[in-house]
Specification:
By secondary structure, the chain is mainly alpha-helical. The protein is elongated and about 60 Å long. Strands 1-3-2 form a 3-stranded antiparallel beta sheet. The chain has a domain at 47-135: Arc Repressor Mutant, subunit A. A hairpin with a 2-residue loop joins strand 2 (94-99) and strand 3 (102-110). The longest helix has 23 residues, at 20-42. It has helices at residues 20-42, 49-61, 67-74, 78-90, 112-134, 138-152, and strands at residues 65-66, 94-99, 102-110. It has 6 helices and 3 strands, in the order ααβααββαα.
Length: 153
């Protein structure tokens, strides 16, 4: 369902600020479109944004990480990270092993195939991000960055 569904499409007089509801839904719609473009760019690599994020956390850590740490970094519950790990492990990109220091904990680590997939995914994502940003004029990019900063501070 589109975030713009049900929002009236009215022409506005120039110089007037858009209604709050329309502006917020436009922002959400743009975020959905950007996310879809990024997912589409990753699709040929066999990765999703969620899978790439897990591979990225493991690559940056340069060591095995507990699944609970990965869940916290992904801002999701442990069951979600378990399902994601199941798919990544099935694809041969990560492996799980027992934590020698805590029998209750399971660690995840990248496989060599996971390292390659991570590098390929990062390149695909970076190119898609460049294409998205190139669609903006210099002034638009600066204005957008300023607006996003204002919304997140």
């Amino acid at each position: 369902m589109s975030h713009n569904e049900g929002v009236p499409n009215r022409r506005r007089k120039s110089g007037r600020r858009p209604a709050a509801e329309a502006l917020v839904f436009s922002f959400l719609s743009a975020a959905d479109a950007v996310e879809a473009r990024l997912e589409g760019a990753l699709s040929p690599t066999g990765l999703s944004l969620a899978k790439l994020a897990v591979l990225h956390f493991l690559a940056e850590a340069k060591e095995a990480l507990p699944l609970s740490d990965l869940a916290a970094r992904q801002h999701c519950v442990r069951s979600n990270i378990t399902q994601l790990m199941d798919r990544l492990e099935k694809d041969g990109l990560v492996r799980r092993r027992a934590d020698p220091e805590d029998r209750r904990s399971v660690l995840a680590e990248l496989t060599p195939a996971g390292e390659q997939a991570h590098a390929k995914g990062v390149r695909a994502l970076a190119e898609a991000q460049r294409v998205i940003v190139r669609a903006l004029k210099a002034g638009e990019a600066t204005s957008l960055q300023n607006a996003l900063s204002a919304l997140t501070s």
